Amino acid sequence: MEYTERQKQEFKRQFASIRRKQMVVSGLLIILMIPYVTANESTGMVLGTYPIAMVVPVFFVVVIGALVFSFRNWRCPACNKYLGRSLNPHYCWKCGIALR
Ligand SMILES: [Zn+2]
């Protein structure tokens, strides 16, 4: 399908916003990894304050939420196909539209 210059610009603008949201969600996940990896099995505490039993369910809810969000967000603005694992695609693998 052929798009006008104006539409192509709009797709790039939309993709910039999609990518920004994706970065925020990825950043949040990385921040959440910190308490997760510092969990102390012998004391059963995370960061010395929170019980692991309380943190783990919250962690999984957030991770699943982030995955669902990514799956819905990380799509081509033109053809709506999932963009795959690359965080920096220049083109849509499906319709070939320039994303950046
Ligand atoms: Zn596409």
- In helices, the fraction of residues equals 55-70%
Q: What's the number of domains?
A: 1
Which structural class do the helices and strands define? mainly alpha
Please state roughly what percent of the residues sit in beta strands, choosing from under 5%, 5-15%, 15-25%, 25-35%, 35-45% or over 45%: under 5%
Uncertain runs with pLDDT below 50, 5 residues or more? none
| Mean pLDDT, all residues | 91
- Distinct small molecules bound, one entry per kind: zinc ion
N-to-C span? 18 Å
Shape: rod-shaped
Give a short account of the largest sheet: 2 strands, antiparallel
Order of helices and strands: HEEH
CA gyration radius, whole angstroms: 18 Å
Widest beta sheet: strand line-up = 1-2
- What is the number of helical segments per DSSP (H or I, 4+ residues)? 2
Work out the number of β strands: 2
Keywords: Membrane, Transmembrane, Transmembrane helix
Protein name: Zinc ribbon domain-containing protein
